[in-house]
Specification:
This protein is of the alpha/beta class. About 40% of the residues lie in helices and about 15% in strands. It contains 15 helices and 16 strands. The chain binds ligand 76U. Ligand 76U binds next to helix 7.
Length: about 475
């Protein structure tokens, strides 16, 4: 008998042992192609098991193509193609360089611009909204949603950005997506692939990488104190410009109205010209009211507005959106007819109720207050500790600011020392789109204050001071 059955083995059913045993024998060549297998009854008697166990085992082998039947003749071994084995590394070993090492950040403090504080997030209210979403949208949750995201959710976002950002649009124009990068990817697929794209430099490196990978001609454009330099944009022949007018990323500058109008006028001069307004953190504005979006000033349907819930709700939520001018919307619909929305519709309906119930506005208001306190405290402490050796660009907006530290140390030096001091910080290096060396003396840091608790600010500044002075 070519099979051994262990009836005491309780983690494997008898039929599984029969299936595994025969399969192994076929694969290692002990059972040859077209060899006849014992009848179900004969095998059951030989192994002293039930005919049913053999039957189920044979059926599984049959379903997977290891054996075949011939009417009234019985079961035979299939002629199976041999495996080719070229890779010598084995099948279960992941090469060491691909292994992920858990990042341990015990005892670290963070002045990262990417962090946000979720300790004040009203999870209870969020869960209530989720429950309501499950009850009210049961049918919708069991179906595929519209490719642009559920209509009701887009209506809610539409109403919200009309009030808070002055955005002019209809729910039809909104495309929801699981992250801004994904939306940029979709948007750019709809654009002419010969487009030349101008990006703010310093700016958002992830967009730069993405657009280059999509094979677009990308031109990093330097900034003056009003924002992106229009003369330089003209000189590159760019037809699409990405900007962060509410709070330049990462320098923090707010684009004044004159530059906004110049930019819009530039776009109005060509049918293929567009401005992508990345409005990533405009919900946080201190001392004065929010600044209306660039899109709200556009009279020629040239602006694509992009917003995100990463900073205001939860970074891990992955809900962002863009507002397309009608002409681009038409292209989007043609291009993405068969597209299935990536975002989790339960989270989208939950967000819908979270906004509608007023919880969203309440949370943003509360966080504005907390972040403003932290921002002020961090600036005060930096000036106190570094004295004349630091200049802070104290723009009262967003979740980070720029600081210029007078120092002879190199950027690499600062990065290494930051690890030793257990302080998460990012320097200007991260945001320079071209490998241009920084000519100015000193170190520019982009300091975030969203995820450092008030009582830790003095300690964080002390660590920063040690990075520069030890
Ligand atoms: C987002 C800019 C400039 C958009 C941002 C962010 O996908 O909606 C920053 C870094 O969460 P999403 O992206 C929003 N535009 O800075 C938010 N920050 C980035 C994502 F965390 C990271 O890599 O320096």
């Amino acid at each position: 008998m070519f099979l051994l059955i262990d009836k005491q083995r309780d983690n494997n059913f008898i039929y599984q042992q029969i299936y595994e045993g025969i399969k192994d024998n076929i694969l290692n060549g002990k059972l040859k192609a077209h060899e006849k297998l014992p009848s179900k009854r004969a095998l059951a008697e030989g192994l002293d098991v039930s005919i049913n166990s053999v039957k189920i085992g044979y059926e599984q082998l049959l379903a997977e193509g290891y054996i075949y039947t011939q009417e009234r003749k019985g079961y035979f071994v299939e002629n199976i193609t041999e495996f080719v084995q070229q890779y010598s590394g084995g099948t279960d070993k992941l090469p060491e360089d691909l292994r992920e090492k858990p990042v341990r950040r015990d005892g670290w403090l963070s002045l990262s611009h990417m962090a946000s504080d979720i300790s004040y997030f009203p999870f209870k209210e969020w869960l209530k909204c989720q429950e309501k979403a499950i009850k009210s949208y049961t049918r919708e949750l069991s179906e595929m949603t519209y490719s642009q995201g559920p209509y009701e959710v887009r209506e809610t976002i539409c109403r919200m950005i009309a009030i808070s950002r002055g955005v002019n649009c209809e729910p039809e124009q909104i495309v929801i997506g699981a992250g801004t990068q994904l939306l940029v990817d979709q948007l750019m697929e709809c654009m002419n692939h010969n487009s030349v794209i101008a990006l703010e430099n310093p700016g958002y490196a992830r967009f730069y990488e993405l657009l280059k990978k999509m094979n677009f001609a990308v031109e990093p454009i330097s900034l003056d104190d009003q924002g992106i330099k229009l003369a330089d944009v003209e000189a590159t022949n760019a037809n699409i410009v990405f900007v962060t007018p509410s709070h330049q990323f990462p320098t923090g500058k707010i684009m004044p109205i004159s530059r906004r109008i110049e930019l819009l006028n530039w776009a109005a001069k060509g049918n293929d010209r567009y401005i992508v307004e990345d409005d990533y953190d405009s919900e946080f504005k201190y001392e004065t009211d929010n600044i209306p979006s660039l899109q709200s000033l556009d009279r020629n349907q040239r602006v694509i507005y992009m917003g995100t819930f990463s900073k205001t709700v939860l970074p891990g939520l992955r809900i962002s959106y863009m507002v397309l001018p009608p002409e681009l919307l038409r292209k989007y619909r043609q291009y993405y007819t068969n597209f299935i929305q990536y975002s989790n519709s339960l989270m989208l309906y939950t967000l819908h109720y979270f906004i509608e119930s007023g919880n969203y506005a309440k949370h943003v208001k509360k966080m504005n207050h907390h972040y403003e306190t932290r921002r002020k405290l961090l600036i005060t402490e930096l000036n106190k500790r570094f004295s004349h050796k630091i200049e802070v660009d104290a723009v009262p907006a967003g979740l980070h600011f720029l600081a210029h530290v007078h120092s002879e140390k190199s950027y690499q030096d600062i990065d290494e020392r930051a690890v030793k001091e257990k302080l998460e910080i990012y320097s200007m290096k991260r945001f320079l789109l071209k490998d241009i060396c920084i000519k100015e003396k000193g170190i520019k840091l982009v300091l975030g204050f969203a995820n450092v608790k008030e009582d830790k600010i003095v300690e964080a500044v002390e660590r920063l001071y040690r990075i520069f002075n030890n």
